[in-house]
Write a structure and sequence with these properties.
17% strand; alpha+beta; 3-stranded antiparallel β-sheet
Length: 77
């Protein structure tokens, strides 16, 4: 129970030690002797789609018949 409370307190402190600036960067306070604030530059990601031409082979489908030998089974009573 004590370990759970200690972990919960540590998580609460680490969550409140981060803040986001107006430009989208993150400010993180590190727990050294006192506190030290570092700014992390978060990259911007642009997501889109593009169309590409791909060469595919032309496959002709024809019906054909073939003679094959199949085994037959006769059961006698």
């Amino acid at each position: 129970m004590v370990k759970l409370l200690a972990v919960a307190a540590l998580v609460a402190v680490s969550v409140t030690a981060c803040s986001k600036t107006e430009s989208g960067d993150l400010e993180v306070e590190k727990p050294v002797v006192g506190t030290q604030t570092d700014t992390l530059n978060v990259p911007t990601v642009e997501v889109g789609s593009d169309t590409a031409q791909v060469a595919v082979p032309n496959v002709d489908v024809r019906k054909d018949t073939a003679s094959i030998k199949v085994p037959t089974v006769k059961v006698k009573k």
